């Protein structure tokens, strides 16, 4: 029988749930690796942490992979057929985040032919899990249909959490999610307020600001790049996604097509482009994307990537200045 002590656990997504998984893994003597958006954390339960572009390097060494990710444009299909193929033979996959993060047909193939020893799944691409899904009949799969958090004390804890959040709300303080772990402020999964209002709007994490730099998409990554985020609306021509080395593609922050066509990277128009682009960044979708970039910059080095030949007069330059202010 295999032992937990000395095995390697990979936690993908280091929010409140991922942090608790890491804490328990360390308690059982596992070596804990983790992936989050920035590749930085103050969590004491993690032995090594990397940004998403290093996921492929970590998968082959992990005996167990635990996914605690939300479903976003960046995480959908993250664990695809190629990622599953890179996993260690005999490894176990656990998904308590969102089903759309995993390529289910590829997972079923790996479980059927024995490349993976097993899977424990609380979430699925389609919920409830269809009756004809092959997952129901696989002997090496544990299924808890979005009920893994249930316990005889669940209602008691929910009431206690509501009372605490109500007390904080009335006092004008911050809300909580029930986690008292010291790492629960990690940006991977920001706490969702149980009580909306002033307290939720005031919630923030005190962090130091790090360097924001600009790099062309065709340049080789540097070790100190930190989180590498593509900020162009269009994918760089001739660059394969497998070799790009980007941690995210934040295309929703890019300027409008109309503004880009008007600007055409004319140096004499840059000052006016800067002004117009800043106005566009007040649009709710772009404002949300800019806030996401601020969060990344606050938690570690951030490199903004653009395919533009003259990066110093690109949208990346405007963003870098805004994030540095």
**SS-based class:** alpha/beta
According to DSSP, the number of beta strands is 11
* Helix-strand sequence: EHEEHEHEHEEHHEEHEHHHEH
Shape: globular
CATH topology of the largest domain: Rossmann fold
What count of domains describes the coordinates? 3
Tell me about the largest β-sheet: 7 strands, parallel
The number of helical elements comes to: 11
The unreliable regions are: 179-208
The CATH homologous superfamily of the largest domain is called: NAD(P)-binding Rossmann-like Domain
Strand neighbour order, sheet with most strands: 3-2-1-4-5-6-7
Q: Could you walk me through the main structural features you see in this protein, from its secondary elements to its overall organization?
A:
With 325 residues, the chain is of the alpha/beta class. It has three domains: 8-143, NAD(P)-binding Rossmann-like Domain (Rossmann fold, 3-Layer(aba) Sandwich), CATH 3.40.50; 154-202, no CATH class; 212-324. Helix content is 31%, strand content 14%. It is built from eleven helices and eleven strands. The protein has helices spanning 16-27, 55-58, 81-86, 104-112, 154-171, 198-202, 241-244, 257-263, 270-280, 284-298, 315-324; strands spanning 8-12, 31-35, 48-50, 64-67, 91-95, 116-121, 141-143, 212-216, 227-230, 248-249, 302-306. Strands 3-2-1-4-5-6-7 form a seven-stranded parallel beta sheet.
